[in-house]
Specification:
Layout: H1 2-65, H2 69-92, H3 97-122, H4 129-159, H5 163-169, H6 181-190, H7 224-235, E1 240-250, E2 255-263, E3 266-276, E4 282-286, H8 298-311, E5 317-325, E6 328-337, E7 340-352, E8 358-362, H9 364-369, H10 382-386, E9 394-404, E10 410-420, E11 423-430, E12 436-445, E13 448-451
Parallel strand pairs: 7-9
Antiparallel strand pairs: 1-2, 2-3, 3-4, 4-8, 5-6, 6-7, 7-8, 9-10, 10-11, 11-12, 12-13
Helix pairs in contact: 1-2, 1-4, 1-5, 2-3, 3-6, 4-6
Amino acid sequence: MERLTKWVLPAVLALALAFTGMWGYQQYKMNQQYSRHMDNLYQKSFYELVGSVGSVENGLAKLMASGDRSQHAMLLSQISRQADAAQMDLGQLPISHIALDKTAKFLNQLSDYTYFLNKEVSRGKTIHVKEMENLKQLHDNAAKINSELVRLSTETLKSRTGWGELMRAAKSSFYEASDDIYTKQFVDIQKTGIDYPSLIYDGPFSEALNLQQGGELKGAAVTEQQARDAALKCIGSERVTRIEKSSDGSNGILDTWGFQVWLKDQPEQPVFISISKKGGKVVHVIGQHTAEKEALSIDEAMEKAGQFLEENGYPDMVPTYQQNYEGISTINFAYAQNDVIFYPDLIKVKIALDDGHIYGLEAVNYLLAHKKRDLEEPELTVDQARKLVNPNLHIHSSRLAVIPTEGKRERLCYEFKAKLGEKRFIVYIDANTGEEADILQIIDTENGSLTM
């Protein structure tokens, strides 16, 4: 029996060792395959980014040289699509949000502005001198970014530096500042002097008044820990695996604490959240998400987004504008008080239609504009204002609304939603003077409703 034990035990151990070796080898091969897959994915995203930014620069140059309105419409549409594609490719790269911040903001602004101009040109309007100046500034920025990306592409080919190699060498703090060739180059892009012209786009009354007068910014100062707790509450602490401070300063308008948040269900792409240092309000949520399928209706998405705002200190917000893109619904909310809607107090929310989570929020407009307002009784009644609307329009709803003006003031109006045949419009009649302050056409598309 003792002799049998001496033979059996080594045999069992050898067999176990063999199985362990086979399992380890299989894991090694699987890791290799995964690394190759991710390397190819990152390379594809990077080179598509280079191509898209190059196309954007080329399109903007053609736009400034063209004098034909139909050509303008075609080029603006192409530029907007290419800028959207570049944003998606940029979001796929495993680089710190800090290193990509200005580039991402530029591409987002460029896409929105060219989309807005395309709508204007489609209505028969021409591109004015001021708009051409904005386009030239955007072109110059695109040229700077394109030049840096081409240089980075050339350098990586020479050094044969792969994204997979970069990921394998990365530390746990990879999404923070790094000295790898890719991150260094994107940091250099940040330093090229990307300027942002003042643009108006993205739905009705989406431009902030740009005045630091919001009452929300006069609250008590919050500590880093309080801001961290607010960020966790915003995203849902049960979803978080790690949270790290990524910034501590000003974005040029207001001071914020910034955090990178890693999620259980999306471990490779952290979400960036900024919290105002005054009042502890959520200012930005910036995340990437690919929706597998759409499980929520638009009404359900609006309800969940509104509930999210309520839970994070933004009560009495009503949806005013909605667009869908690849399973993500972008909804603009405006503040409502005593049946009056305040369009300057605007918050943009991006909600996924598959899991109902929030992957984008922008509350700068609200924080700059929101304050206690004492509205005086308007000079005109709603019936008097209704008579000033074109009699050919069939009005089906009316309410008081405060809208921003180009002179950075606020104007109390009656908002009339109406139809002319099958076309829908929103007409704004000044509640004191009776002047037609603005008129918007609602265009229904497969992705939602646009206002023009």
